[in-house]
Design a protein that fits this description.
One of its GO terms (molecular function) is ubiquitin-protein transferase activity. The protein is mainly alpha-helical. The protein is about 50% helix and about 0% strand. The protein folds into two domains: about 10-75, Alpha Horseshoe (Serine Threonine Protein Phosphatase 5, Tetratricopeptide repeat); about 80-184, Alpha Horseshoe (Serine Threonine Protein Phosphatase 5, Tetratricopeptide repeat), CATH 1.25.40.20. The longest helix has 17 residues, at about 10-30.
């Protein structure tokens, strides 16, 4: 005979969702001890909340390098986990002045795309983050991938008048083609 659950008992799914929310909160507020505790209870570090956000989103968006390093060190991949539809500026990848914060470790697929086929480079070009653009191109990001609007990252930079981004792409591409030559 199966006992019926009372209205006050939580379902397993509700409990798991609460644990995911706690994990994301720990990442958001730089609580590494709580993050580790939750992970040790079986909460996946790749878990997403109802809006599709992960602990990596929360930690990176709030500048918590220790949490980001812990997550990456435990198998969370940076770009494939980002939902660019939910994070239009891809905050974790594109915040100005955070280049060393974002790229101190191995990149995931730098050409990962969202439902509109935008890549991190599309967003970096749209936002005008020159140093991020350079690092993405150096890391193998394609400058010729088309999004669903049939626009390349360069097209997106031009649409926003980001000529410094286009110059950065050209310089970086030239440096990649001509090693040892400083183009400026």
């Amino acid at each position: 005979m199966v006992a019926e659950a009372s209205g006050t008992e939580q379902t397993h799914a509700e409990t798991m969702q609460e644990n995911v929310e706690e994990l994301l909160e720990a990442a958001r507020y730089d609580d590494i001890d709580d993050l580790i505790r939750l992970a040790s209870t079986g909460v996946s570090l790749d878990s997403k909340d109802l809006q599709g956000r992960t602990a990596l989103h929360m930690a990176a968006a709030n500048g918590h390098l220790g949490i980001v390093e812990y997550l990456i060190g435990n198998g969370v991949v940076i770009f494939p986990t980002l939902n660019f539809d939910l994070f239009p500026k891809a905050r974790a990848a594109l915040a100005p002045g955070e280049l060393d914060f974002i790229f101190p470790f191995e990149l995931g697929d730098v050409n990962a795309s969202n439902m509109e086929k935008n890549t991190p480079l599309h967003y970096a070009c749209l936002s005008g983050h020159v140093e991020v653009v350079k690092k993405l191109v150096q890391s193998g990001a394609s400058v010729s991938l088309l999004n669903s609007h049939e626009r390349t990252p360069i097209d997106e930079a031009m649409s926003m008048g980001k000529m410094d981004v286009i110059d950065a792409i050209n310089e970086t591409m030239a440096e990649l083609e001509l090693p040892g030559v400083n183009v400026s």
